[in-house]
Write a structure and sequence with these properties.
The protein is α/β, with parallel strands linked by helices and 683 residues long. The protein is built from 30 helices and 17 strands. The protein is globular.
């Protein structure tokens, strides 16, 4: 603490800018756990913690380790510390887990049986290696998955994820057999299902996968953490060397650590006894990445001497927003109790609005955005935050129709998604097979799904088209190609021409026919990955949308304008994003559509506690106004309001736009009445 030490002049302004609880946390030494609620100044407190250790306690910046999860967060931390201490006092060991452990492993690569100058394989590289290995195994020898087919994309991805999980749990290929057999035994003893065939297959796959990495003198992301951590666990001299390097270890977003990250942090802090962790269990939303919120929640039991501080004063949101957020998260029985409060005043109540259909919901949200923009609210101060990417299409359409500029954060716009662009290319080929305007579409779709057309064959078609002044589609049937490719392309072009000549079909029906007849939908159905499922959903959205257009050129123009809207530079734009992407961000006005059972929380959600934490994160992004909406019907089925809506106190919410604008309704009571009537009729 600073009570017995004079505060240096450079440090005084830093400490004076903190609240009493922030100051106590920043100046505490030893094992420190800072429970920082949303918007309570965690980065400011962490920065002050570093400054205190340098300026007050004389720690050398090069001996302080500061770690976080993203490069963006690391850059922000570096800037803030530099602003306080100057550029020469920024800790040199400041960065992401992967960056810092890679640096540690490069210093002594032999602990991972690697040589100097080893390469690092990213997640896509790792998946490619697993894919290659699985495709060398006859399908009859592959385990039969619960969903999909042996050797399909979903199984390959799952195998790669299981190898990554083993590494996060510090299980080497040598130890994998015993670990997996123990896992299978425990689950069978508890009468729980376990996919034992797949897990046993992963054991052998893991060993072959790791052998390839060793041959290539390469490490994947899991290796960067696993091998240095295991070396510190099993080699006392190695542990002493690395633990003695640091006089303090500072960790941000501690609620998101996995087992390897947790042990790496605690082992590095063993010599100094200085471990400063900042996190919020109520914002732990990444269990699907391997994060284990239990490490934060059990920290006081692991380290009984820990000093715990709760940052509960929120500087972002109004009281109504925080009361709603506190109420929703209070239903999590495992959380560490804390209650956010603010000095910003009560503010506007949460708006909870019901609509019949998603199109009405989107149109109303966009009208309200326009109204608020007209009163002086900047577009970039408004955000639409949803649970799933697939919900963005209807919102994009409404924004485009109203000519409201927007930007999708962390995802591409609907019309830039692969399946949508492929489908529009098929429509282009169908409409103008003999015109050069269809050439780009032909290049995109001639071998999708595969028809045996490679770069050489396409080159021949290009030469034929150029010589005869024809389109690529027309030239394809006149070019000498391999028999297999020639027959496949002949059939493809014939389908395009036949469907193009049909009369009386709507544009949606024509598009459906193209996707089916060309084998495109069969290609997606054969791929059981989540990505393929999402692409099929995008195509269903596009087919529905196409029904509203009479001519292909009108739909293509609409798509081109919509595809360009998010990318326009220098414009003030409404922000669209998923709840996961919104973490760490803040906006004056936040719209939260589709708060409905089966969407939020999801019907297939395996972690209801994490869905609740997502609701807390989403609500606490709002600074001044939060608007929740839901529909009676969405995507062809009926729906009911999310349980999270009922948990928001009535005193903190209203059921209309402020001052009764527009005419959206709160259909909660009406929905229940209709539901009772249908039940009485047995429907």
């Amino acid at each position: 603490m600073t009570g017995d030490l004079p505060v240096p002049r450079a440090l005084a302004p830093v400490l004076d800018s903190l609240t009493p609880e922030q100051r106590r946390a920043a100046t505490a030494l030893g094992y420190v756990l800072v429970l920082a609620g949303a918007g309570t100044g965690k980065t400011k407190t962490l920065t002050a913690g570093v400054a205190t250790r340098v300026e007050l306690h004389g720690m050398v910046p090069g001996q302080i380790l500061c770690v976080t999860f993203t490069n963006k967060a690391a850059q922000e931390m570096r800037k803030r510390i530099g602003d306080v201490l100057g550029p020469y006092s920024i800790p040199t060991w400041l960065g992401t887990f992967h960056a810092l452990t890679a640096r540690q492993l490069r210093a002594e690569p032999e602990v991972a049986q690697l040589r100097s100058g080893f390469d690092i394989r990213d997640a896509e590289d790792s998946l490619a290696i697993v894919r290659r290995l699985i495709r060398t195994v006859p399908k009859e020898k592959l385990p039969v998955p619960q969903e999909g087919a042996p050797g399909d994309a979903r199984q390959i991805k799952k195998m790669a994820e299981r190898i990554a999980r083993l590494k996060e749990d510090l299980i080497t290929p040598v130890a994998a057999f015993a670990h997996v057999e123990s896992l299978i035994g425990r689950r069978q003893s508890a009468n729980l299902h376990v996919d034992h065939e797949s897990w046993r297959f992963v054991v052998g796959l893991y060993g072959r996968y790791q052998a390839i990495l060793r041959e290539q003198n390469a490490a994947d992301f899991g290796d960067l953490l696993m091998w240095p951590t295991l070396a510190m666990l099993h080699d006392a001299a190695y542990h002493r060397r690395w633990s003695a390097r640091f006089t303090a270890v500072m960790a941000d977003e501690f609620q998101d650590v996995n087992r390897a990250q947790y042990l790496w942090l605690t082992l590095l802090s063993r010599t100094s006894g200085e471990l400063f962790c900042v996190g919020d269990d109520s914002q732990s939303i990444y269990s699907w990445r391997g994060a284990k919120v239990g490490f934060l929640r059990n920290f006081p039991r692991e380290f009984p001497a820990v000093k715990t501080f709760k940052l509960e004063e929120n500087f972002r949101s109004t009281s109504n927003i925080l009361d709603a957020s506190n109420a929703v998260i209070s239903f999590d029985p495992s959380r560490i109790e804390k209650t956010l409060f603010t000095r910003r005043g009560k503010g506007l109540p949460i708006e909870v609005l019901g609509f019949s259909y998603a199109t009405e919901e989107a149109a109303a949200i966009v009208r309200e955005i326009g109204r608020r923009a007209a009163t002086g609210v900047a577009c970039h101060d408004m955000a639409i935050i949803y649970r799933q990417n697939r919900l963005s299409r209807t919102l994009e359409e409404a924004l485009l129709h109203a000519r409201v500029p927007y930007e999708i954060i962390g995802d591409v716009g609907f019309y830039r998604r692969t399946a949508v662009k492929d489908a529009l290319a098929l429509l282009t080929l169908c409409a103008w097979p003999d015109e050069r305007r269809s050439d780009e579409a032909f290049r995109r779709m001639a071998n999708r799904p595969p028809r045996g057309l490679g770069a050489r064959g396409l080159g021949k078609i290009e030469i034929e088209a150029s010589a005869g002044g024809q389109s690529l589609c027309a030239a394809a049937t006149r070019t000498r190609l391999s028999p297999r490719c020639a027959v496949a392309l002949q059939g493809f072009v014939q389908i395009l021409r036949q469907i193009g000549c049909r009369e009386g079909e709507s544009l949606g029906e024509r598009l459906t026919g193209l996707l089916e007849a060309t084998g495109y939908l069969d290609m997606l159905r054969a791929d059981d990955s989540d990505e393929a499922a999402t692409q099929r959903e995008n195509l269903a959205e596009l087919i529905e949308l196409a029904q509203g257009f009479r001519r292909v050129e009108h739909l293509l123009e609409h798509a081109a304008l919509a595809g360009g809207a998010p990318g326009e530079k220098g414009r003030d734009r409404v922000q669209l994003m998923t709840m996961h992407r919104s973490k760490g961000l803040e906006f004056r006005h936040v719209f939260l559509p589709a708060w409905e059972e089966a969407i939020f929380p999801g019907a297939m959600s395996r972690n209801p506690g994490e869905e609740r934490r997502l609701a807390y994160v989403a609500l606490t992004r709002a600074m001044e106004q939060a608007t929740i909406t839901f529909c009676d019907y969405r995507q062809g089925g009926s729906s009911r309001p999310s349980r999270f809506i009922d948990e928001i106190p009535l005193k903190n919410r209203i059921s209309s736009w402020n001052h009764g604008r527009n005419e959206p309704r709160q259909s909660d009571g009406r929905w229940r009445q209709v539901d009772q009537e249908l039940n009485a009729l047995g429907l």
